[in-house]
Amino acid sequence: LFNWDDVTDGSGINRYTLELATTSGFGGTIVLTQNIDGSPPNSQFQYAGTPLTEGTQYFWHGRATDGTNNVGAFSSTFSFTVDTTIPAAPTITSPTAGIRNTPISSIAGTSEASGLTIEVFNGATSLGTTTSVAGGAWTLTLGSSLGDGTYSLTATAKDAATNTSPASTAVVVTVDTIPPDAPVITDPVAGIRNTAISEITGT
Question: Of 30, 86, 120, 179, which is most buried by a Cβ count within 10 Å?
């Protein structure tokens, strides 16, 4: 969908013309010239032609024609790149699955590229976002550490075109920072006895 601001003119506007090309100089690389007529014409255009090429950068600009057919200059040039490829799911490398005796203060992992927005979840609850760096590594520092409890951690990766990956494989971590109660020795009892001690029992 292409959008632009309406143009005003004393005689009114009766046409917008949109050009789409594969180079910023337009010329022989124009792939679309579209007139949008009306009184006034719509200030948007929904492209429904041949699918644009994945990975290709496109450039577009527009101009207006007034009610007496004076044709204005083209606007500034805008560009976009077609990207419909979904990133691969990231991987959580820290913490590892299992039981630990310290709170979780950060979650780290890897992804397929730098510059991806990584969102980390505990179940369906978002714990925050971070950005992958060179090599795809990422680390999310939590605002509040995850204390005692069991957590099912997953992550997704979103690229600049807002394509979002599937969730990563869940890493299930239990945090247990509470030490057990001291045991109690019930036998032998305190004092003097006249037999050797062969075993010690308790609760």
Answer: 120
* Half-sphere exposure in the Cβ direction for 45 (13 Å, CA): 23
Q: What is the pTM of this model?
A: 0.73
Return d(Cα 85, Cα 60) in angstroms, integer: 22
| Residue 62: count of CB within 10 angstroms of its CB | 22
Token digits of residue 62: 């527009």
Rg of the chain over Cα atoms, rounded to whole angstroms, equals 32
Give the model confidence (pLDDT) of 137-174 as tens digits.
999 999 999 999 999 999 999 999 999 999 999 999 99
Nearest CA to 157 out of 180, 179, 140 is that of: 140
Q: Could you tell me which residues come within 8 angstroms of residue 192 by beta carbon, excluding any fewer than 6 positions away?
A: none
pLDDT at 177: 95
CB atoms within 10 A of CB 150: 12
- Alpha-carbon distance of 174 to 98, in angstroms, equals 6
d(CA 22, CA 79): 9
Residue 70, burial from CB neighbour count under 10 angstroms (0-12, 13-18, 19+): exposed
